[in-house]
Write a structure and sequence with these properties.
The chain has 262 residues and is α/β, with parallel strands linked by helices. It has eleven helices and ten strands. The chain has one domain: P-loop containing nucleotide triphosphate hydrolases (Rossmann fold), CATH 3.40.50.
Length: 262
């Protein structure tokens, strides 16, 4: 039998801690993410999932109460050090939030926002990039003749697809999805999952989700977090079907994992 080729490591997180004021939100988190795999973060509210996601593209820089300690390397380069170009980092590590935020302008301008911020001015290049992004987000057929229409009236699921297209337009390597279907009905949520599933071939994806079935459907690796720490991580089918920690087992069964003793 031919051995599997080891996957290249894309992200290395080492002893990462985050505080908001004096309150710790992450406590010494360490894990690696292989290139072009999908990792799901699961856990109760307040477990640190969203805090971890924001650390991965230095969104904490925007919060004066936040303090970060530890290491995050992407392609071997430390992103938490001084002198890092955070604008460039956020283009390479795109993020989609639970609630889509539309700029008060056209559909086309929303998709091309990142390109404009990079200084791209060639209209043809921008339109071609917008078309590619909209196709990958499953919106081109619907939006091809509406790029000059306002984005704000769009339904929320379409706005979320548009948010994905906006992230894709600048060609990121890594995509972060912070509970991307939380505001959507089940049918709309599945349509977003379909988009994410197609993107898995070309991007390294991390998704924080409160939907365990979503994690099971999408993720190669699942990480269970509690109280700002990683309790357990592993191949998704194994973690869901045979968890190695009683706290993970309790959480997956819908019991209170805080009362479990390892």
């Amino acid at each position: 039998m031919q051995e599997r080729t080891p996957l290249e490591t894309k992200i290395e997180v080492g002893k990462l801690s985050v505080w908001y004021g004096s309150e710790p939100a992450l406590r010494g988190v360490t894990f690696d993410v292989a290139s072009k795999t999908t990792t799901a973060l699961i856990g109760e509210g307040g477990s640190g999932k969203s805090t971890l996601m924001r650390a991965l593209n230095r969104m904490h820089d925007l919060n004066p109460e936040a303090r970060v300690q530890g290491s995050i390397k992407i392609d071997g380069a430390e992103i938490l050090g001084a002198g890092v170009d955070t604008a460039r980092l956020r283009r390479n590590v795109g993020m989609v939030f639970a609630r889509p935020t539309m700029l008060p302008t056209t559909i086309g301008d929303n998709v091309m926002f990142g390109l404009a911020a990079q200084g791209v001015r060639d209209e043809r290049s921008m339109r071609e990039a917008a078309e590619r992004a909209l196709r990958r987000a499953g919106l081109w057929e619907q939006m091809a003749d509406k790029l000059d229409a306002p984005a704000s009236p769009l339904p929320e699921d379409t706005q979320q697809r548009l948010s994905i297209a906006r992230a894709l337009a600048v060609d990121p390597d890594v995509l972060l999805f912070d509970d991307p279907t939380a505001m959507l009905d089940p049918i709309a949520a599945l349509s977003i999952e379909d988009v994410i599933a197609r993107l898995r071939r070309d991007h390294t994806i991390i998704i924080a989700t409160n939907d365990l079935q979503q994690a099971a459907r999408l993720a190669d690796i699942t990480i269970y977090m509690a109280n700002g720490e990683i309790v357990e991580s592993g191949d998704t089918p194994l973690l869901f079907n045979k968890p190695g920690d009683v706290r993970t087992e309790a959480f997956l069964a819908g019991r209170n994992p805080r009362g479990a003793v390892s």
